[in-house]
Amino acid sequence: MNKPFITILLLALLAIFPQSVTSQIYSNSASQIAASIGLSLDEASWFNTLNTFGLLIALPLGAWLARRFGYRQLFHIGAVLGLISTLVSSLSMQAAPQMLSWFGHGVSASLLVLFAHAIILKNLSFRAIALAESLVLLLAVLIPLGIYPYLLSTLAENNLWRWAFSLQLVPFLLMLGWARYGHWPHQEETQEIGFNWIQALLLTIASCGIAYILLRGERFDWFEAPSMVWIALLTASAIALLGLAIRNRWGPGQYLDASVLASRIGKLNMLQAAVAGFVVLAISMLTSVYMTKIMQYSAANAGYINLIGFVGMLAGLGIAFFATSNPDRDPFKVVPIGIVMMMGTCIWLTGSNAFIARHIFGLQYYLKASP
Which of 75, 102, 296, 329 has the lowest CB atom count within 10 Å? Predict the structure, then answer.
């Protein structure tokens, strides 16, 4: 491996690591966090909701910041926000600061994840990209889904959930030092572009509306309250207006880069990614309810089952690397297979006992390890 590859890989893994921890803290520590700061579980669910809002809002914003100011500044901004949010999450026992910190974690995660994938794709050869992305996938998805739940649930059951946040202080400090003084792997390219507030506002309303409806549906029946109907109508209106704004170029400046959808293959790939995302969300909700409500597993026991699923995820990683390491292969052919396997597992899981559930979790995580 040459020096540029090592530098880029270390930067990407450093950017990914804190977010991979945060993504698992809520699912394994929600009840303990709620009890520590005097909230109900329903009120504590806003931690996850605000974190998701931050993720969705910051992703297109990060793309604009990278074009306008460069990836080094994007990396710096993401590290600063992550460090501040981590300090608040580790030290504060008040509800309002904790809520804001979870939103900050989401914003930081989007900026740093975008940065990590961008420097890999912009600076490496095809096979090096496949290898680097596989290692990032291992750290950002497979290990958090397979190993972190067991470790974090053990901390949570001993009321040590804040230590999970504290572990992120070191990588954020290293990021700040690297952004200021470290070697940078490529020459920055910036553009003098304005900010399109119309597109930004409409996209924020649309994406947060979809996320809110889905996340509230995790705890309640959808549209059980009239407010949910109004939120759905507002979201649908924002989506329609956003399409018109992009097509008719409303407002000065830029926000979204729609060139990826200019070709038929680009639209197809976006559709497959959206379908895969919804399937993963549905399966995650189902398995969470199945283990904690139906099987009455503790958080530690649920984490142990994820360790079993980790074996299946490693197999999926091997297939993902094979599918992406050669330009003649089409990695998107793997996605429909993964979706079918996930849906089959979902049907199987709903009518199975605990013994069968343990043995099909490896298959269930296949899609999560696919490209």
Answer: 296
Predicted confidence band of residue 366 (pLDDT cuts 50, 70, 90): very low
The span from the CA of 348 to the CA of 229, in Å, is 32
Q: pLDDT digits over 157-216, tens only?
A: 677 777 777 778 888 999 999 988 888 877 777 888 888 899 999 999 999 998 888 777
Tens-digit pLDDT profile for residues 49-98: 888 899 889 988 998 998 889 889 999 999 999 999 999 988 888 888 88
Burial letters 311-349, b for 16+ CB under 10 A, else e? ebbeebbebbbebbbeeeeebbebbeebbebbeebbeeb
| Amino acid in position 132 | A
Asked whether 56 and 213 are in contact (CB, 8 A), the reply is no
Cβ count within 10 A of residue 207 = 21
Rounded to a whole number of angstroms, the CA Rg of the chain reads 21
Residue 2 DSSP label: -
For the chain, the helix, strand and coil percentages under 3-state DSSP, each to the nearest 5: 80, 0, 20
Q: For residue 296, what is the DSSP state?
A: -
Alpha-carbon distances of 118 from 12, 66, 78, rounded to whole Å: 9, 10, 14
367 contacts 342 by C-beta, under 8 angstroms: yes
Q: How far is CA 8 from CA 3, 116, 175, in A?
A: 9, 8, 13
Residue whose C-alpha is closest to residue 199's, from 102, 307, 64, 39: 64
- Cα–Cα distance for residue pair 231/254, rounded to 1 Å: 27
Q: Each residue of 16-51: pLDDT tens digit?
A: 888 777 777 776 677 777 777 888 877 888 888 888
Closest of 62, 57, 101 to residue 81, by C-alpha = 101
Query: Tell me, what amino acid is at 38?
Result: G
As a whole number of angstroms, the distance between CA 26 and CA 38 comes to 16
SS3 at position 195: strand
Contacting residues for 270 by C-beta, under 8 A, at least 6 apart: 260, 261
